[in-house]
Amino acid sequence: MGMMHFRDKLPLTWCLVMQLSCILHQTSSVDWPEEQSRKESLSPVDPDSKMIPEEQLRKEIPHTSDGGLASLDTNKCKPNTPFIWCLPQDYNQEKHPFTYFHLVNKSLPWDYAFRFVIEEISNINDKSQTMSISMYFAVSWLEPRLKINESATEWSEARTGPANEVNESPEILKYIWYPELEIYGLDTFGRQRVLKEMSGVRIIKNKTITYELGVRITISCRMNFDDYPLDAHTCQFQVGSYYDTHETVTCSSFFIYDLDRQRSLQHFIQIESLPSEFKVMELPSGIYAACGFQVRLQRKQMQFLVQVYLPSFMFVIVSWVSFLIKPEVVPGRMALLVTLFLVLINIFNSVRENAPISSRLNAIDLYLVVCIFLVFGALMEYAVILLLLKKRRKPMRTIDQGLRHLFAASNGAAAVPLRDTNTREMLVTYANNKAVITEAVQNAQHEQRQ
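Above: the chain sequence. Below: its structure as tokens.
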């Protein structure tokens, strides 16, 4: 009976053990928050990152025919295996190629070759003093450690690229050394994408590697707006090595620019080679070689001539025309001058709102201030004229004073010592009319008495 009781409980005990093992297995397979955050931190922010997460490696590593994972060193040279190019087994990605200059009978300094295919200058921001450029950015460097199979047919066939070149995926940069570059005055650096990132790598038969990608770059540009809108600027695009000084690394560059692809902006644009004084960057850490190009900007002035200069000039001329209006027409002349003054103030405020910041009063501000003062001067001149007219029309005596002085004299106008002829004639006329009226009233009263 005891044996039968134990056998009845055995399936139940076995089930409990199995459930417990399943729970422990699930717990061990779940990442804790700290472990999950650590794995996420390994994910590369950009394709140039050398830290590759485990899941991405599993996807990128090619698989063998039986479904297993191939070796990580797929670009490494293997005996008895055909190749176009490969890396030696002792290849170290962290070591610079110029430390192996003896392999190609070359001495320092090492050379970086840049190529810039400029699509357009997409934006020029006066407020932030920046310039945005859309272009294809390419850099080439010599890698003496590459093993080249010169007898491979891919070098002569056009299916993998031009002659003596083969195209490769940019993913190989995760296994090959590439230069650390710095763009001086960089604000933003954006990569162009359609379905995938617009970039590629070419391996050249002479052991040169070329990396090219489509980018939108925004760089800072020191601008002086004291002559705005008659201003002109020069902006330099400079790129060079981040770590290595000019004694170790030099550079060369050329650019291609199609003016027909350029959109219309507020400046005339001219791109030229980088002047020699900008090919060297002196920093506290050392002297570095720089390459690139220079952009000349000349502001278009026609819209300012039509929208600001010509109207304000015409308003000043109209204010001078007001001198031909009689001073007695106070409402018309005053309304004209005040309206012109306010319109010029409005134009000045509008220009100041859109104008970039300058260290002093710029050219267009100075012009508008002069126009405002000219109209203000015409307004003040009319005010002075009205004041003089008011003083001139003021009589020497009041009417009562004049009548008393007039009737006190024995003869009507002979004893009036007034200098103002108009006032004297007015008083004489008033006195004669009053005498006539008085005589008529007296005659009428005399007739009533009779």
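The radius of gyration is 47 Å.
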